[in-house]
């Protein structure tokens, strides 16, 4: 037995040697007859040919699999994932793939030869090259930032993050409604907490700086024309003001924009923070805290003057006209820089599904296609009462096409965010929306900036 194994091992070793050591091969060729030499050359050629063909095939396949534009993601992997995993498992799975860099990307980025998509924000303090962002809630713990930038988002919002880690609501808490391309979620701010998420952001910065030996000037997104936003929440039993202040001082140095989320429907009492007195005290407190942020805590800002992050508040779509008017007055009175309209809805709008479907009885916030008319209406109402032309308005809710994005822009949104549309369409969504926006703009002979707020000027 041992002898046999030795014989096999010797044989195997000789074959490996002959493959590895070209010299031995050459020596053997020289001592062969010319017929043998010809035969061996042919074998060698065909095996090299086979190897080259397999390498080419493998590279083409991996190019296809990792190309965000490939339709396999939307038509094969997406539906497959929805078939084999429940919504929450699929969510965690995709974020993990992204965190390991195993996610498709747009190899050539988004093409904007005529420079029609760019937009200045926050009173010209910031610039976005593509007016499409990833909304909060997908990357709650800042693990997938660069994967999201790599599929074309110019703006990535991580969070919501709570000061202390908390598990959120019991499962199941995330439900798909595929016919309506919508979902209901009641995650309830499941968060790894400030310190854990902050450490993810710090590690990302350290890795980036190492590449450049520390000699680099960049925003937290790492690229001009892109924005990294951090969305702040409060713990279930946390303090209505202090939880946000802590978020501002801790994440301020690592964020290009800070978002104050007072509109998740899944944290009891949170939406009450949208009421006039409470909202004004909160916004005043966070602006004061923002003005004291120590930018130098982030090694990216060492030795540079840096820019304090603008503050943005995110509101619900389920508000009456007078409530939205009151929010507009409060926001105008405060010194914040922008507003996101909107979060998910607690109402149950449907498109194709029957409202009798038991899924609509699930508590939580609904997002996706049926939310669009509600969030767009809320945005229009806000724009009607807003008296500050420098305030940046951000549209969100049911956006999945270029046409949707343009409607929000004309209503007053400087850029838009998506979440549920991405969950259903996959990595090609941003590129597709951008192409559709460009086509529409071409027809109108305008740039994105020229259509922002166009409906308000009528
Ligand atoms: C699963 C899920 C989790 C979300 N979590 C958050 C969150 O933590 N913080 C937040 O501000 N918004 C959160 N949102 C709301 C989205 O950011 C967005 O406002 C909403 O989904 C509407 O956009 P959409 O129709 O494009 O999805 C979440 C949405 C979904 C679907």
Written description of the protein model:
One of its GO terms (biological process) is pyrimidine ribonucleotide biosynthetic process. It is a single-pass membrane protein. By secondary structure, this protein is α/β, with parallel strands linked by helices. The protein has 2 domains: about 15-60; about 90-455, Aldolase class I (TIM Barrel, Alpha-Beta Barrel), CATH 3.20.20.70. About 45% of the residues lie in helices and about 10% in strands. An 8-stranded parallel beta barrel has the order 3-4-7-8-9-10-12-13, surrounded by 5 helices. A 3-stranded antiparallel sheet has the order 5-6-11, with no helix packed on it. α9 packs parallel to α10 and α11 runs parallel beside α12. It is globular and about 95 Å long. The termini are far apart. Residues about 1-30 have low confidence and may be disordered. Flavin mononucleotide binds next to β4, β6, β11 and α13.
Topology:
Layout (H helix, E strand, L loop, with lengths): L1 H19 L1 H10 L2 H33 L4 H14 L2 H13 L19 E3 L4 E3 L3 E3 L10 H6 L4 E7 L12 E4 L4 E4 L8 H18 L15 E6 L9 H10 L5 E5 L14 H16 L19 E5 L5 H13 L4 E4 L23 E4 L3 H14 L6 E5 L5 H10 L3 E4 L1 H6 L3 H16 L3 H4 L7
Parallel strand pairs: 3-4, 3-13, 4-7, 7-8, 8-9, 9-10, 10-12, 12-13
Antiparallel strand pairs: 1-2, 5-6, 6-11
Bound molecules: flavin mononucleotide.
